[in-house]
Amino acid sequence: MLSILALPRPGEPSSEVKPDELPALLQSAGAVAWVRCLAPTDPDLSWLQGTFGFHPLTIEDCRQRNQRPKFEPYDGYAFIVLFALSWAGDALETTEIHCFLTPHCLITVEDRDSPAVAAVWQRMHQAPDLMQRGADFVLYAVADAVVDTFFELVDSFEESIDDIEERIFAPQAESVQPLIFRRRNLLIAIRRAIGPMRDVFNAILNRHLPLIRDPHLLYFRDLYDHTVLIYELLEAERERLSNALEVHLSHISNTLNQVMKRLTAIATIFMPLTFLSGLFGMNFEHLPFQSLWAMVIALLSMVIIPGAMLLWMWRARWF
Amino acid sequence: MLSILALPRPGEPSSEVKPDELPALLQSAGAVAWVRCLAPTDPDLSWLQGTFGFHPLTIEDCRQRNQRPKFEPYDGYAFIVLFALSWAGDALETTEIHCFLTPHCLITVEDRDSPAVAAVWQRMHQAPDLMQRGADFVLYAVADAVVDTFFELVDSFEESIDDIEERIFAPQAESVQPLIFRRRNLLIAIRRAIGPMRDVFNAILNRHLPLIRDPHLLYFRDLYDHTVLIYELLEAERERLSNALEVHLSHISNTLNQVMKRLTAIATIFMPLTFLSGLFGMNFEHLPFQSLWAMVIALLSMVIIPGAMLLWMWRARWF
Amino acid sequence: MLSILALPRPGEPSSEVKPDELPALLQSAGAVAWVRCLAPTDPDLSWLQGTFGFHPLTIEDCRQRNQRPKFEPYDGYAFIVLFALSWAGDALETTEIHCFLTPHCLITVEDRDSPAVAAVWQRMHQAPDLMQRGADFVLYAVADAVVDTFFELVDSFEESIDDIEERIFAPQAESVQPLIFRRRNLLIAIRRAIGPMRDVFNAILNRHLPLIRDPHLLYFRDLYDHTVLIYELLEAERERLSNALEVHLSHISNTLNQVMKRLTAIATIFMPLTFLSGLFGMNFEHLPFQSLWAMVIALLSMVIIPGAMLLWMWRARWF
Amino acid sequence: MLSILALPRPGEPSSEVKPDELPALLQSAGAVAWVRCLAPTDPDLSWLQGTFGFHPLTIEDCRQRNQRPKFEPYDGYAFIVLFALSWAGDALETTEIHCFLTPHCLITVEDRDSPAVAAVWQRMHQAPDLMQRGADFVLYAVADAVVDTFFELVDSFEESIDDIEERIFAPQAESVQPLIFRRRNLLIAIRRAIGPMRDVFNAILNRHLPLIRDPHLLYFRDLYDHTVLIYELLEAERERLSNALEVHLSHISNTLNQVMKRLTAIATIFMPLTFLSGLFGMNFEHLPFQSLWAMVIALLSMVIIPGAMLLWMWRARWF
Amino acid sequence: MLSILALPRPGEPSSEVKPDELPALLQSAGAVAWVRCLAPTDPDLSWLQGTFGFHPLTIEDCRQRNQRPKFEPYDGYAFIVLFALSWAGDALETTEIHCFLTPHCLITVEDRDSPAVAAVWQRMHQAPDLMQRGADFVLYAVADAVVDTFFELVDSFEESIDDIEERIFAPQAESVQPLIFRRRNLLIAIRRAIGPMRDVFNAILNRHLPLIRDPHLLYFRDLYDHTVLIYELLEAERERLSNALEVHLSHISNTLNQVMKRLTAIATIFMPLTFLSGLFGMNFEHLPFQSLWAMVIALLSMVIIPGAMLLWMWRARWF
Hints:
By secondary structure, chain A is of the alpha+beta class. Chain A is built from nine helices and seven strands, in the order E-E-H-E-H-H-E-E-E-E-H-H-H-H-H-H. Chain A has helices at about 20-25, 40-50, 55-65, 115-125, 130, 135-165, 175-205, 215-280, 290-315; strands at about 1-5, 15, 30-40, 70-75, 75-90, 90-100, 105-110. A seven-stranded mixed sheet of chain A has the order 2-1-3-7-6-5-4. In chain A, about 45% of the residues are buried.
């Protein structure tokens, strides 16, 4: 589905136009247009290739998806793939946003309606002064909205890690492991998206393409800073999770150690007692069962032996 | 075994030719040929060296195999080694594809029939317009088919890791370890192939050899992107597996902890009981065996002591 | 809240001036001013933007905070973000110090009163010869005070790690784990601040901006050295903590091993004894309960069997 | 001990000459010589320094040994240290081969007779056409033989790791640990040799010394490729060993878990039974020992209780 | 304390001079001096700053110590910080050696008498031909002695690790952990010193300062090689220690596993036996205590049951 927002001339209001009106409109100096292509069909992609002459490889990328964020300069245009992430329940949903930047026109191809881009689309309808700054500034606005989706992710991430950290040393800590497991897998997925995004903005900064005018480079430097910050935040979260898991493993071992010491203490105290009582439970007639003294000695030894052992364990800091 | 597919002149159909016809054919401007050498014999390699004058070191490489993916420019030609991977049962099978690229001819030397290259060979028979684009484009077609074999591997890999992840927290998780072990070894093997492949395409992009014409460089940039993507996917899989193993180890420790707590609880409850019953099983005649009160106290203590201990354990959150 | 310290002319004393006096004052050659803006309000930021013409993105950064340490050259000025860390109880408190360096004026924007910067502010009041060296030297003085806060942190860190290390091999080592856990998280946080700080000073050294005069570059090189030293100290502390945790885990396992060996030894000795006493506690009438020899043999075996086992265990180095 | 193999003029046979004949011989254009110095004595080294004017530092290196593989260009000659490894029983033996390359002469100083170099020395006697290609080609032949010693090591290494991997999941896996331990230490030692060797060949490729003629650079590129391949193979082996050790540790924990579950099950079943039998072994006269019903109930409970527990354990998937 | 060794003119003997004689002496061409300042006092440092005009930051560094090894070129001189390490009992002692290199004079500032530097100081008194080679050669001699202290450390280190490795698989291995712990911490400390030292010599090699004459650069390249070698040795030791700790942890787990299997076997054999003996120790009158057959069956089952279990365990490779 193709929607086109066009600003025919600086100072005029922007409005949606039909695809066949676009070529004429782009002739006039100062015209800026944004072609938004949602869930592209084959005719949509053919129209793009026919109208703008994009390289078959880039059109193929739009069709196949499953790219990685990248920046590729071509003759007369640039091809940029951005990833917007969002929560779908407890899983991550990745929306690939394929952008073509030409001198007067930005084309975005999304496989699914991304709320982040939709919000920019609305804002552009209401603020023609933004669009007037050029197609590269529209690209910046889209990319800024996409990068902001990562900040939201990282925030919710930090909260869930805070939650995990509070539960590590709890007595019933077993439910922490699936949580750590899932968080780490999510981190791997987010990092795989933000790392190449950072490279995209770095490439934009260093290539000095005429497509992106110098005063707007500062805005892309700002985006680059944001992606670096997100990457560093994710690295820090990753280290916190590893820290949590390692210390947790050591904590479990420690608890196990305590439990075993207790079991050993119990066995150490009761096994001799049980043996003693069994000894005097034997039916040999020659055992001194009639003697009061023997009984007193037997019973006393059942008090003194465990008492001595408890004292010794306490001294040996067994507990 | 040598097979040669030649396109004598642009616009004409391609056809298989005999080795001795090749030199004459390559004289004509616009001619393109692909020499495919399967399971090369010594005469085959001598013919190659005699006809094209390749450096003895490269011919030696074709003979010995066990190279790594590499790109080596020589005077007038380039030597490229690619690795195609495929499953042979549960193990990986590596097929080395040694390519010589001359201005008008691509020579591929395979130690074993690779299905990926065979499919390109079929396609070239039917589509002379592809071959017409030059020997460098034929190289691209071969390399593209080889890189695609990695995507299939990675896909089947992801599925098997999904399967492992579902079983980590299962009660009978012991069968997970050999699976993780084998997957990690496979990952090491695949990474050893794709890492140098990425370097090969990067070298092709940066050397600006006249052998590869500028419009075709974009296609190799696409291949480079694919290898980078595969490498990143493998890295992510590797981290997922490490994550799974580490959390699994911590989960086992936790389970062990639970089991030991249970054992300790059982011993703590029954050891005093057994001792008490043994105490009154002693045969001393002075023990108050006739007294009903003594018996009631003994039996009551056998109810109260474990009851109190259970209460205490429950309060101490032992279970 | 805006405070302005100005030195109208070299050799004169410095004094606080009102915001509306600043533009005129900065006209005179040799004037140096430091605008300190604490907990900036919107009017403060508007005044900054109006008076100095700073880029909207940098003003936006001052409003939003949550940046990372960075250095950004703009036309005619540089924007520098520094992080000062301090302890707030047991947690770290980060104060972001946003600095604008113009040829004759330093503007610092702090969200909260940083003791480090406040001390420099006091010093500048009393030592006009420092301020006379230029706005870049004032920036150095501020940055030096900020970097010194890290040295204090690292010192207190080293002490707490020394303390942890002493307790690793103690019998009651369980309290070490939460300590290691918290220290490692703090390290992650400090490293996230000092790493980009180092990059900031490195960028200042390598950009050769006219804003920072050559003789003062040596001072920034000194700061760069300090940040490198802090980073290396933190790395060393991180490795010490990892070392402590890994060895601690191995130590716990070892202790557990000892405990289990002891339990096994006890069970090995008393289980056969208890069985023997139970055997002769059976009530079968055909058992030789009247025989003195049988009793002596039974009792002797209860001495010899555990004695032999103890000897064997001692030989097998079980203890 | 000095041996000198000299080729006085291209086309003539090579022959061994005396040290004092060498200077005159090297005057003639096209002469090539290889001075092999085994277990160098002080007079040998003095003669080298006097005849060729080598820098005292390099002579000192030959005397002291314990260098690392390195490449150092000097005025008029290059100093190259290579490491040849071989098995001496179960340990690695390192032979340092110090090479001086001058325009017409290669000097190799070995502390002990290396079989790899000795084989090249034999080959050079029989094939004067090899020596005729120059001193740099003789260096290549030596280096090639040295690099081949690593391939043999890696091959035997792979076999021993295959062997280890097969034993990880065996029930009696305890003997695997010393094997893994020794393999990893060997890997560290081999990597310490091959890493700098790779740098040596890389330096030779990039320095473009006139000592090594351009057509021979391809041969050194081949050696560089070999060292890279060996390094990658070693990395892969290292990862396989780490994989084996980590999974093995997790497997041991798992086995321990199973053993403990079994022990807990046994204790859970027999402890109540033993208590029950002890209960009715008490000698209280008021216990219903005459009642047949009491006995039947007691005996039945000794069947039903463990039966119920087994059922419950089986349902809880305890086994 | 200042001591000055001066060589007024090449060929003359060197002698100690007073501080106030130094300026005049340094006027003459070819003069070389070494100012050694031990445990510097404030007047010493002021004299240095006054006489040579060193930058206040470098004087401040000499006063504060706690630097890291570094190389800083200034106008007309270079400032170099080296670290000499030595054993003080079981701990490391770091001596910072701050060096100023001017064209004709080397100034070394040590906080404590370093034996390494003291030995060079003695040698310079006796060998004026060494000093005659210039102040940069004196710096080399000092640095060489300092670097040699690391070789001694590494040697003693290797021995202690050999010792640890021998004890890993010993039955009483618990004492290994504190040793590994301390060695690893020492390694961290040594690496923190040698890493920046390596960078110092690398910087000297690459800066091409006129202060260090070209023929002497080779000597500094040799020092650089030594620091690289030490760094690699330390890396290898670190990996060996990690290897030892990891395998040791796995070995402990394995031993624990064996111990638990033994305990389980003992419990499995004796618990049913104890139960059986208890069963026939019950006092029910209806039990067949008079029957010889019952007794024989009971006693036989006490032989057959454990016999069968032992057989089964042996078959299941439990031992």
